[in-house]
Structures are given as C-alpha cells and as structure tokens.
From TrEMBL, chain A:
Pfam families: BPD_transp_1. Gene3D superfamilies: MetI-like. This is ABC transporter permease subunit. Residues 102-286 form the ABC transmembrane type-1 domain. Keywords: Cell membrane, Membrane, Transmembrane, Transmembrane helix, Transport. It comes from Nesterenkonia salmonea.
Amino acid sequence: MAAVKAGESTTAASEKATHGAAPKSPGRQNPVLRVVKASDPLALAGMIIILAAWYVVTEQGWVRPVFLPAPEQVFRFAEAHFLESRLVQTQNLGDGGILENLIYTTTSVWLAVLLAIIVAVPIGLASARVQFLRMFSDPSLLTLGAVPVLILMPFFLVWFGVSRNGQLLLLVLVAVPIIYVYAQRAVTNLDPVYAQSALVLGVGRVRLIKDVYLRGTLPEILGGVRIALAGSWSIAAIAELMGAPQGMGRLISTFAANTNITGIFATILILAIVATLTDITLKAVFMFANRWGSVNK
Amino acid sequence: MTAVTENHKTTEQVENSGPVHGAELVATNVNKVYSRAGQKFHAVEDVSVTIKPGEFVCIVGPSGCGKSTMMNMATGLLEPTDGELALDGEPIRGPSPDRGLVFQKDSVFPWMKVIDNVTYGLKCRGVPKEERMSIARKFLAEVNLTHVEKSWPKELSGGMLKRVAIATAFSNAPKLLLMDEPFASVDYVTRLQLQKTVLDLWAEHRLTVMFVTHDVDEALTLADRIIVMTNGRVVDDRRVAAERPRRLEALSTPTMLEHKASMLQHLGLPTEGGA
Ligand SMILES: Nc1ncnc2c1ncn2[C@@H]1O[C@H](COP(=O)(O)OP(=O)(O)OP(=O)(O)O)[C@@H](O)[C@H]1O
Ligand SMILES: [Mg+2]
C-alpha cells in the first residue's frame, strides 16, 4: 500500500524530472574572451614571478651584468633596435631592425606548420582506416620522427643554398610526424559507432569525412599542431644558425659573436613573447573547436 | 527527398488508420559467423523470418544471443556470412536511410548540438532547412526534449541522449525502424513514457518496427509479435493480440501470463512466480 501511494505521489514530480533539467546555456562567447580564458592565469603569474626574480637578482648585484643584464637594460635595447637598427643593418640582416628578423622567423614557423598540416592530416586520418596506407606511412613517418633532422640541415644548404627553403623543409619534416601521429590516433579513438550512425542516416562520402572524421578529430589534431608549433621555434632558430639570410637565430648568433649579452637576451625575450602569444591563440582555437568537449572534458 | 517530406505531411492528419508506410523485411536462412579469439563462432544460425509491413516486432533473448548482430545485418552495416535479407523484395546491401537504427551504444554526435543531430539525416538528403527544423522540432517535442534543442550532448543525461537518438531516427522517416535495447539506460518512469511515445509514433507513421529488449514485460507491452532468440537461433515466434494501450492490468490477463510463462520457458527460466 505504502509503495503504491509513494508511487502515485511521485508520478507528477517525476513527470517533470524525466524531462531533465535544461542545462544552462553558456551563451555566445566572444573571441576576445576566449583568448583571455585560454591564457592560463597560473602561467601568467609564473611569468611575473620569474621577471621579478630577474629584477631582484640584477638589482641587488648578485649576478654581474656581463652574465645577466638587468631587465630595463634588455627592454631598452629591444625598444631601440626593434624597428630600425644600425647594428642589425651592418650585420647584413636586412634593412630594418629586430622586427624584420622576427617576421622572417615567424613566417618560416607558421608556413612550415601550415604545410605540415596540409600533408600530415589527410595521411594521418586515412592511415587509421586504410591498412595498406599505414603499412607505408607508419614506418616512414615514425622513423622520421625519431631522426634528429637537424643533422640534415647541411645537406639542405647544399641543395637550396642560403635561402628560406632549407629551413622550411626542415621544419616541415619535424612537424609532419607529430601531426600525423595525432591525427591517426584521433581517428583510432573515435568510436566507429559515429560513422555507422551517419551511414544509417544516409550520409555521403564527403559529408562523412567532413562532419564525422574531421569534426570528431579536430580537437585532438589541434592538440598535435600546438605541440608541433611549440617545438618549431627553437628548431627554426637553430636551423637559421646553420645558414639563413636573416632571422632571430642569425641575430642571436651575431650578437653572440660580438658578446652582446643584452642583444641576445632581447632577441630571446621577443621570440618567447611571440611564441607564447601564438600558443595562446592556438589554445583559444582549440578550446573553440572543443566546445563539445571530447578531450580534457 | 520529397518522399520523406510527403510521408511526414500525409501522416500528420491521419491517425491509426493511415496508409502503412512500413516495409516488409524478409530474412532467408541468415547466418553470421564471427571469428572470435581465432575461433569460428556462430552468432546467428539459420534465421528465416518475414516481418510484415507495419508490424511491431520485439526480439527477446539473453545477452550474447545475436540480437544486435541481427539488427546490424538488417541495417546493412554487417553482411551475413550466408543467406539474404531483403526489404520490400530488394536485397539489403549496405546501409540506407530506408532502414533507421537506434543503436545500443550512444550514437549521438557529441560535436553537434541536439537540434543539429536530429536534423542531420534530413540535411544529408537535401531537405530544406525550414522543413527539417520543423520536422526535428516536432519529434523533439514528442520525446520531451524541446528545452534542450540548443544544448551540447555532453550536457544531457544518458536517458536524454537515448531520446535524442530516437527523435533522430524518427525524423529520418525510415520504412523499417530498428531499435536495439533503446530503453536499457532509462529509468522506469521515463521508460513507460517512452514506450508510449514509440507506440504513438508507430501508430501515427505506420512504419515497421523491430525492437530488441531483454525485458519480457516490455515486449508484451509493445509488440504485435514476439520473437525469442537463444544462441543465435529463433526458438519461439508468437503473436500478441491484446488491445493497446496495454497497462499493467493488461499484462496480467490469463493469455498474457501464459505468453510470459511460455516465453520464459524458452529462455530457460523457471516459470513459477512469473517475474
Ligand atoms: N565483431 C565481433 N567479433 C566477434 N564476435 C562478435 C562480434 N560481435 C558480436 N560477437 C559475438 O556474437 C555474439 C552475439 O553478439 P550480439 O552483440 O549480437 O549479442 P546481443 O544479443 O545483442 O547481446 P546483448 O543483449 O548483450 O546486447 C556474442 O557472443 C558476441 O561475443
Ligand atoms: Mg546487443
């Protein structure tokens, strides 16, 4: 009896309950807010602490300026040589300043990663489904990923001369295996039920690739792109050391030859800022692509 | 493309008596042999059944008896090792929107909002936006999900996701709707509601339904006909003639209890006590 009564009394309530609560819609986020969110406040705090430590250490004279220049000194140098720099011009590194070299390196890195995406994403996605392709792509690309490609740079210099092409090829060779592995793994992780469901609903080949395979794997692929990009800056700089018309790597090496410690610090600092900003932007893109939350839910 | 919309339109005004839009499914000596851990395993053995247009058939059987395998072959996602399945005389080769499936697993695309999931099949077939939205909204309302139309699937519960899958399948207006334990993850009250929803939609659209369940009572509540499977074989095939809706009392009439007892026997359970 009691059970029946309890049952009756809950029917009305459960009628509502079974509809499930409407989840709070997060509303449209504007892109600026996304970028702000993507810049990890903890990382920001860490950066400020490091800057403060740098300031204190030099201010107190615990380290001699020959080894570690003071922050203001570095900032002032960066500002003075950013747009227009005699120092840069006399070294034959273009007719501007640090900015021109920064643009050179940044272009190399972005262009290379873009080319790597174009090459690696289709092969990576397809290799997860087509065994015949994987038979070739896995051994070749995974070996490539294990090789320290920097040793190839001297050969590229012979082939391409002192131009951007050698660095681009090197950077592409570094980024391709990383993005390939991420794309392949993303498809492997994608439950086959989604493709089956799409097929049952009457999907065509193009939509299947676009709406299921690409959309379902985009966040993981972007995760791979972020990692490839993060590694590319230092490799770009090192490749430039070996031979490039200009670039941040060349700039560092000329400053080093002249024991201009402040110059080295300024260059590294600017490069680090651009790398960080790029990463924050990409992370914002990642968060947008991952609104539906498969990865890092 | 137009066929889909026509079906929706014509059935809107018609109740139970409307034209049957469902298709006939004929399975002839269907076999499925898997290789499992290096060994051959006969998951479906020599199944021959004819499901009539507009029939509501439940398939009951213990876990692992080959129910999902049958469903996947009927959709065309899986090929029989031997034998043939045909829909309205056309041999089934590969999936087609004629045959909808509510998967046992969660199959709602997590990267599309609820409404985009429900309209996806219609979009694939070029139904104009206005039209597919109104079709989808109608079915979302039928499964009580109007309020989450703009939500991401991750924001829904398991039972709500199942209802999205059901709305998606119905929106696509299949001639044969296969439902693989659609209510397994749904609470008792919602389950009763959804049973009613499915029966209403079935009555309205007059499609053919094949509905897999573990639950003998659920089968008795829903079906015109119940097929019992064990070990990949059809061991029992019976008609259930009772009037609908069948409420709890309807399940305890002598005929129903007899159905139940004999089905449980086929399933290899002791018959005393009934439940
Ligand atoms: N891809 C596969 N490879 C090998 N064996 C399989 C495969 N799929 C299913 N089987 C086997 O076939 C049998 C039937 O599986 P099926 O999924 O059809 O069962 P089911 O009746 O739907 O069970 P449940 O009620 O648990 O969903 C099981 O014993 C299972 O192990
Ligand atoms: Mg199953």
